[in-house]
Amino acid sequence: MHPSSIYNSEADAALLDMLTGPDRPTAKTILPRRDAALDPLLIAAVSASGPHVTRNHYQHDFFPGVMLPQSEGSWDWTKFTGEDASTKSERKRLTYVSRQAPRRQRLGLDDTQGGKENAIPLSPTENLPTSHQKKRRSSLAQAIEERHRTTQPESTRPAHKSLPPLEVKCMARTRIPTPHGPVFLHIYHNNRDNKEHMAIVVDSAQFSGLPAPDAPPHIRSRTLDAVWSEHETEMDRITRGAYVGRLSPTSHMTSQPSEDLVSLHARDHFHSAHQVTGLSDAIPSPLIRIHSECFTGETVGSMRCDCGEQLDEAIRLISQPISIPSQSSFTASKTLPGRGAVIYLRQEGRGIGLLSKIRAYNLQDLGHDTVTANLMLGHQADERGYEIACAVLRDLGLGNLDGTGENVRVLTNNPDKVDALEEEGIRVVERVPMIPRSWKTRNPQLVDHVGRVPIDDTRVAGATLIGGGAVHGEDLDKYLRTKVLKMGHILPLWLDNPEQ
Ligand SMILES: Nc1nc2c(ncn2[C@@H]2O[C@H](COP(=O)(O)OP(=O)(O)OP(=O)(O)O)[C@@H](O)[C@H]2O)c(=O)[nH]1
How far apart are CA 271 and CA 278, in angstroms? Predict the structure, then answer.
């Protein structure tokens, strides 16, 4: 036998011994491992799940900050007394680097037109003034003039050539009981920004099923009632709110995808049936409000502005029953439930965002008014747009575009809103003013020690929130006065002291 084959047989015998023998080989006798130190599959899995895979990966510099000793392993955060400023400046922050091309490139957008109008979903720095906004105005009068020039409704601004037509889709709706009666809350998505705008629809007649022949059509979302996929189930439709009547454990009826046609038919039927009596003309058009988000006013109950009160008052006014006087000696008078909608737009702080609004409040505490404070921060006095609101209105059958949809009455003092709606083809047949409650109810004899006017003893809590009463205070007076005197709101000024 050849010596090398003997050597091989010995090695093989040792290997066999190691694998099968009763005694495990010691470190001295063990043969070098022949298997791979790391499983290639494991390596592939690890490399496939780098920081680009998930936004919640630890390499994002979120709380707790990476590279802080406290962030390693479990640590008692109750002991944290703040990061040492010196170590913070030395600490090199890890940054998240996207491997995708910039969104602008991926969407094939032209980079030459900056500004909000391009409606790219907002980045976290959106609230910071851009360089062109940082330009200081020489005088307030000039700035206000400029604001009137630049804050036209979005529809009148030059449309971005690469933007697809605006689309909105109602993703879900549900019944919400409120102090003013039930409403349907609708959540909308759109292809212009990454915000969830909402519609609060008041139409309690819907609870009794399909519209009665002598009643106005239901206010329903076309996109919600549409068929979303051939695979959608009845439960899918019910879960997203595409039902008629009222849901209960024992009753649920899905809406028909052709709801659009049904409601159009119902509207035609309604109008022709009542042309003779004139009843259809006697029923007022739905009352709507376009409302802009105000976290401080609506959630915290801030008395710096009247936003919480306006949202509450709008739902209350829209929910008021409608009395239809008798049209002839043959017909009796009627009372219909209130109908309409509040379109709730996520354009906090008149479009400048919550962060900037909070900074503006500090400037207001230094004595500046709401308009000047915005301008000092490099913003316009009002940066809102109403294109999405109009698309939502049309989806709800409120808009009367191309002969479809109803005319509307609009609750506002803001002439810009009426102009914006009309630019978009929404037919506004009446502007209904919103008089501040405190102006309507203020009577020095009634003011209690916290400055609240007890207009209704049953509604004393949460003064500026839903279901609240009337409040007034120095900040609110100043804000309301500025709206009338500087922002052109159509409201007869009520002042305790006009010199203030
Ligand atoms: N920048 C800024 N925004 C504010 C201030 N106070 C309220 N807002 C925002 O203003 C918006 C409400 O606008 P208003 O001017 O009160 O009312 P309007 O909607 O223009 O007009 P109406 O329809 O008559 O109520 C909300 O987005 C609030 O967050 C403020 O002091 N500064």
Answer: 9
What is d(CA 306, CA 175) in angstroms, rounded to the nearest whole number?
26
Q: Which residues contact 394 (CB under 8 A, 6 or more apart)?
A: 401, 405, 426
pLDDT of residue 496: 58
CATH hierarchy code of domain 168-347+384-435: 3.40.50.10990
- The residue whose two tokens read 């191309």 is 402
Residue showing tokens 């028909």: 256
Cβ(414) to ligand 1 under 6 A? yes
Catalytically active residues are 382, 384
Torsion angle of C-alpha atoms 55, 59, 63, 65, degrees rounded to 10: -160
The type of residue at 122 is: L
Distance 307 CA to ligand 1 centre (A): 7
Q: How confident is the model at residue 91, as a pLDDT?
A: 53
pTM: 0.65
Q: Which residue's CA is the closest to the ligand 1 atom numbered 2?
A: 349
In angstroms, what is the span from residue 442 Cα to ligand 1's centroid?
22
Are 291 and 310 within 8 A, CB to CB?
yes
Q: Residue with the nearest Cα to atom 14 of ligand 1?
A: 307
pLDDT of residue 382: 95
Q: Give which of 463, 411, 429, 422 is closest to 200, Cα–Cα.
A: 411
ipTM entry:
0.97
* 64 cis-preceded (ω within 30 degrees of 0): yes
Angle, alpha carbons 144-145-146 (nearest 5°): 90
| Residue in 494, 320, 350 with CA at minimum distance from that of residue 417 | 350
pLDDT of residue 465: 65
Nearest protein Cα to ligand 1, atom 25: 412
C-alpha 53: how far from chain center: 27
Please tell me the distance from the alpha carbon of residue 21 to that of residue 14, in angstroms, as a whole number: 9
Mean pLDDT for each 10-residue chunk of the chain (500 residues)?
A: 56 76 59 59 62 42 44 53 58 52 62 40 36 40 49 45 88 94 96 95 88 82 94 94 92 75 48 47 89 95 91 94 78 86 97 96 95 95 96 90 81 94 92 83 49 44 59 77 84 60
In our burial notation (b when 16+ CB lie closer than 10 A, e otherwise), range 385-396 reads bbbbbbbbbbbb
Q: Are 466 and 311 in contact (CB under 8 A)?
A: yes
